[in-house]
Every structure is written in structure tokens, then in C-alpha cells.
Amino acid sequence: MSANPSTPSSSLRISRIAATILLTIIVLLVCLIPKAENDLFFELRTGMDILRTGHLPHIDTYSWTNRGTRWDVPEWLAFVLYTLAFKAGGFLGTWLLMALLTVGAVWVVWFWLAPRVGMSWAFPLANLTLLAMKDCIQERPYAFSYLLLAVTLAHLTRLRQSGALADAGSSWRRLLWLPAICALWANLHQGVLVLICLLLAYALADAIVGIRRRAREPEEAVANLRGARRMLALAVACAIAAMASPYGWRIYWNVLVTLRDHNLMANVTEWNPVTVLPFAQLEPFFFVSAILFGALVFSRYRDFADTLAIAALFVESLLHARNIALFAVGGMVIAAPHLASCVQRIHGSLNFAPRSLSRTLLLSFGALIYTALVACVAAASIKDREGAKGYGPAGIGEAVARVPSYPEDACAFMDREGFPANLRMLNNFEIGGYLMWRRPGQPVFVDGRLDVYVGRTFDDMLVLARPDGSPAWERAAAHYDFDCVVTTSLRQARPFLADPNWTLVYLDPKRPYHMRCRILLRRRPQFAALIERCRRAEPRLALGAAPPQSSLVRY
């Protein structure tokens, strides 16, 4: 993977192709590491209904708790694309779409860095970016944002570095495609707001620099202020273009509603600060942060706007863990000129000699060893999630989405026993989306569409998930007057198991005891025959408290 200019062009091209292939393999292996995909199922259910009816949802029809509540789906196009991928290839199809988007994002970082810092630096930097992203690589709409943010920032950085934005005679035509891509992006994921905020940060930074230089360097100050006006105009144009959605201005309102609900923000892991994550999970993030800010400090190329933009992404990732991936991708692209300057300084100070064959072979061998290690981790992770379909393509697709860990057998039991539709069902948050998708005729209590449940329902969901015998739990249980409980949480099921007014009718035999799916029915006349036919004992009810579970809602 040598980037030495004295290398013959054909050898350099072969090295670049080989490095790209190896990097692609690594990305695909990382994408194979299973993640909890609670949201994928309601996305598929919504996408299927959009394709079936030809209409976008505006109110909730999937829950019985908040039916009729306003529900916007700004990411409707991503839902449809994932659904089409599912129709074409099942869960392997949804994985392939996610993997292609992730490969695209890492490719942008790789091809953007390689000509600037050399392949021997770009390869580990691209892999470090991937490692920082790894916990956010899921079959969800924000995979589109990783790719689109990388592409738009690469174009923007190129224009800024060339001085085209500050040049009075430069054409605006090279900027016009940004609002167009924002119009598309807004229908895929609300991550388009990150780009708009970065454009505003660039405008602010250019304005500050221009004002400070006005007395000493009037011509440069004029150029800075011109660039600030253009960045501001571009931000406004992109913000307007982002409303080219069936939901219009509500793309902004929905984000505001989420951010202003403290209970929601405090109890969803991905919206929590990075402090909720284990340190080992944050190591790549810290490495990326150190490299980016180190490059800004030691670079000979100075641009206050780049510093402000990277700092903004960094702060946002500290506040909300889900944005670590956006920080890693966006930060690497923005910092490319600074990284190039630092690499030149390192080469100059250490007097690097032209690469020898032995050195190139050593780097290549190290890359192969790293690839093998990633493959081992991916294989071990897949093995832990193996389902009934084994290691075939369909089985791997299901294992990556952790489909075997969801209560398929419980749903099959309800279908087989003819459970009535429209039960007032209590389900735990983690399986709500799966129940929506697997049993479309049964409304759920709660699922991953948190904007539907923001407020009382979400608050009550937290109370019911952590029964402690408090008056708050009693009030919530009485308020909803449940007919049925379907839960994979022993902690949530325990008070119903102990209540003589409830009967256990299903217990999943395949999972660890505290993770088994349990179905309980309330003793009511309409369920008498079903209870008599299916009732069973809870053999370990007398044991102590259930294993402790985090109070955070995990994605």
C-alpha cells in the first residue's frame, strides 16, 4: 500500500486497487457484527403499508395507546427503500443496502484522504473512522446520512480550499446541487440538519475572521465576508430545500419536540451523552478526536471555520452518542487538508526515505493480519446470534439483525391459538416494533416510534418497565386496564405473574430464564376458553428478584 511518487503508475494503481478491496472487505465484515434492530421492524411495516396504499402516514394507526396521534414519517423514502430491499432478499437484502451505504461512506473518506496524505496513512485513518462508526452501523435511515454527509462535505471542503467561495468572480453553479441533494436527503433522514448547521458554522466563522481582519488586511477581510454571505445563503437555501417533503416544515418541528422532552432524552441510550457507553466502546472515538484536534493544532494550513465545524460535530457527539459516526465521517473529511499538512511535517522532520519493497510488504502484511482479526470478531459475533436458518445467506441476514432473538415462537403461538385482535396488550419497548411487523392485526402498547409516545405514554412505559410496587405503577396499570401481557422482561412480568387475576399461557423454553418471552392473559370471560386450553405454571416464580436491568431504553 505504498504511495511513493517514484513508484511506477501501474504499481501504484494496483496498490490502490488492492487497498480498496481490502478496505471494502473490512467494512463488510464490520457490518456483519450484529446490532439490536428494534426499529427495523416498524420501518418495514410502515414501508409495506406505504407501498400497498400509495399514501404516507400522518397519524398513528399501529398502537392502541395513542391511536390517532399525529405521526410524521420524514424518513419515508428510506423506509420504502429498506422494504424494497427486504422484498428482494429478505433480511439479507436489508443488510446489503446498509452495507452498501456504509461502504460508500468509508470509500469517500478513503478516496478523499489517499491523494492528500498517502495510502499508508489513509488506510489506517479510514479504518479508524470505521471503528468509531461501528456501534452506529444499523439497518436504519441514518445510514444514508453517513454517505450523504461525507459526499457533501468533501465537495464543500474542495470549494473552500480552492478559494472559490470567497472569489468574487466564481460561479454559483458548483453549489447549486447542494440544495438539491438536501431535498432528497430530507426524505431519507433528518441528518440533513447536521449539514445545515455546519453551513451556518462556516458562515459564522468566516464572518468572525473577516471582521477581525478588516483593519489589518482589508482585501482578505472582504473575501472572508463574501464567503460568509455565500455560506449563509447556501445554508438558507438548503434549509428551504429540506422542506421539499410531504411533511414540509414539520421536519424541524419533530426534532424540536424530541429535544425538549427531558424524560425522553434521558432514557434513550443513543440520545444520551457518551458517558453512558463503556470506555472500551469509546476508544476509537477518543483516537479519532485526538487525531483530528491534533491535526488542527499542528497543521500549517489554518482555517478557523474548519476548527469550529469539527468542534461543533465533536460537542454534538459528546451530547448524543448516536452522532459519533457523523463526527468521525465528517471530521475526517473536513480535516483532510490539516492531516495532509501534518503528514508533510512528519515526513520532513523524520526524513522519510522512499519506500522499500520490504517496508511495503510489512505494511501489507499488517493490513492482512488486521483483516483476519476483524473476520474472527465478525464470525464469533454471528455465531452467537445464529438462528434456525444457519449460516446460509438468509440465516446471516437474520443473525445480523438479531431476528432470532425476537419472540417468533410466541407470535406463532398466538397465531396458532387464535388470539383475538385488538387486545389491550402490554409489551416491552424492545419488541414493540417486531410485534407490529410480525402480527399486523394487533395494535401495540409502545414501540420504537418515540415521537408517537412522547409525554405520558412514554413516561408510563418507563414506570411499567420497572415495577416496584409504587403507587405510580399501580396507577399506570389501572389506567391502561390491560387484557394481555407479552414481554421478554421477567422484571416487567413479575407483578402480573404474582397476581391471581392473571394467568400465564406461554413461556418460551429456548432462552435464558430472565429473557424468555411470557404471555399472560387477564382472567376475563372472553378469554376463559383460551386460558383453560393454554394455561401453564411458572416454575421459578418463587426465586428472588429478576436480574437488574438498565433503566435506559436501548436501541
How would you explain this protein's 3D organization?
The protein has two domains: 9-32 and 72-366, no CATH class; 407-534, no CATH class. 62% of the residues lie in helices and 3% in strands. The chain is built from 23 helices and four strands. The chain has helices at residues 9-31, 38-53, 76-117, 119-133, 142-162, 177-185, 192-213, 218-241, 250-260, 262-267, 279-298, 304-319, 324-334, 336-350, 357-384, 393-400, 408-416, 429-438, 450-453, 456-465, 471-480, 490-497, 528-534, and strands spanning 425-427, 484-487, 502-507, 518-522. The protein has a four-stranded mixed β-sheet, sandwiched between helices. Helix 7 packs antiparallel against helix 8 (218-241). The chain starts with 8 loop residues before the first helix and ends in a 21-residue tail after the last helix. The chain crosses the membrane at residues 14-33, 91-113, 142-159, 192-211, 232-253, 273-298, 319-340, 360-382.
Properties at a glance:
555 residues, 2 domains, 4-stranded mixed β-sheet, single chain, 62% helix, mainly alpha, disordered N terminus
Secondary structure layout:
Elements: H1 9-31, H2 38-53, H3 76-117, H4 119-133, H5 142-162, H6 177-185, H7 192-213, H8 218-241, H9 250-260, H10 262-267, H11 279-298, H12 304-319, H13 324-334, H14 336-350, H15 357-384, H16 393-400, H17 408-416, E1 425-427, H18 429-438, H19 450-453, H20 456-465, H21 471-480, E2 484-487, H22 490-497, E3 502-507, E4 518-522, H23 528-534
Parallel strand pairs: 1-2
Antiparallel strand pairs: 2-4, 3-4
Helix pairs in contact: 1-3, 1-4, 1-15, 2-3, 2-18, 3-4, 3-5, 3-14, 3-16, 4-11, 4-13, 5-13, 6-8, 7-8, 7-12, 11-12, 11-13, 11-14, 12-13
